[in-house]
Description:
The structure holds 2 protein chains of 2 kinds. By secondary structure, chain A is mainly α. Helix content of chain A is 71%, strand content 0%. In chain A, α1 (3-25) packs antiparallel against α2 (29-49) and α2 (29-49) runs antiparallel to α3. Chain B is mainly α. Chain B has 3 helices and no strands. Chain B has helices at residues 2-23, 27-52, 61-88. Chain B is elongated, with a radius of gyration of 17 Å. The mean pLDDT of chain B is 88. At the A-B interface, α1, α2, α3, α4 and α5 of A face α1, α2 and α3 of B.
Amino acid sequence: xxxxxxxxxxxxxxxxxxxxxxxxxxxxxxxxxxxLVLSFVCIACIYLxxxxxFLGFVQVLVYVxxxxxxxxxxxxxxxxxxxxxxxxxxxxxxxxxxxxxxxxLTLWWAVGSxxxxxDHIKTPVAHVAQIGIELGGNESGGGHYILPMLGVGILLTxxxxxxxxxxxxKRRKEEKWN
Amino acid sequence: xxxxxxxxxxxxxxxxxxxxxxxxxxAILVLIGIELMLNAANINFIVFWKYAAPHDAxxxxxxxxxxxxxxxxxxxxxxxxxxxxxxxxxxxxxxMNRLKG
Lengths: 178, 101
């Protein structure tokens, strides 16, 4: 593997882990959301580095574009003014590290014992056309994932309607009582 | 080498998300931690596809659907947080101890 390519991956990973740690540890929620956006961007960069351009741009559109905006709107809608946030770690601060440590060690051991794939094999890049054929199909075949794709479409529609009705249910109840 | 490196990064990202989801009291930050864990799983999917079955583009479908389901989960979760905030006047999950509306 190219030395500089590995350096790029290392820098992206460092920024990713740092921003994710900051998103989980800062006290100001807006700063947490901004660090979360940075970590989503770094994950998209890792996808691009791995040669999966389509998923990289899906990541940018869905997570950086949509989910982050949802998170920021939720933070703004659930704040009572901009007085300083107090740090809000729960009483189980030690529980997280204690629980994750055996999991992390097991993962570390499992990953370390994996056989190393030969570096000289050049893996092909998945083109958008291939993904489109797998999803929708064409004259020569493909289209194995039409039903799951329709299912995801129905799920997203249901989530949209359900989320909107949940977020606006109080207002409708108030109108009914008034 | 890069396979193992990406898997280590994914494991660390999962750990950070898990620790945040377990230790923070704010419901929004718990959801952010869950999102980070989902992203770590997606990185695993893609890395294993690239080094195990790169000739089959079908391996990319699982992370694609996973991203779509995670987006739906985030939308519903955040709507739930807003609904709970209207009732409890806080996003502190330690104070949300009743299911009664």
